[in-house]
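Supplementary Methods, section 5.1.

A reviewer requested that the exact input to the structure prediction be made available. We therefore reproduce it here, unchanged from the version used in the analyses.
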Amino acid sequence: MQGNKLVIDALNMLLAAELTSIDQYFVHSQMYHNWGYHKLYVRIDHERGDEIGHATKLIERILFLNGIPNVAARTALRIGADVPAMLKNDLETEYEVAALLKKTIALAETEQDYVTRSILLQLLDDTEQDHAHWLEQQLGLIAAIGLPNYLQLQAAE
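The structure derived from this sequence is encoded token-by-token as follows.
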């Protein structure tokens, strides 16, 4: 099926953001693993898997629309130097992805591509309800119980 060029281009922009998220979560998960923060490692590695699923859905849709997935493009990669910076950077990335998803959902609606819209709504729900919400909770916990207590909780297996 020949898709709308504007929609395909927007999907490729989303793909770049999702691929960046995969890279960022991969590096952060390995840093957590190296530092002994087992719970953070497990969770962020899980998030990386979710992002791979998002990228897969975008690639499948781009191909269905007879587009070419641009797997070389990336958005800004934000690698933190410590746990709070890593969580904040990941949250900022999720906020940017959510904003881009909303913009692309609106475009798909305008172009009457309701299947793409439906796919993107699923990704938005995952981004806002799971990823961003969890990151906000972690930053809230650090504020409430202090960084040393938070990190102690994350070291337990």
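The two ends are 48 Å apart (CA to CA). These observations are discussed further in the main text.
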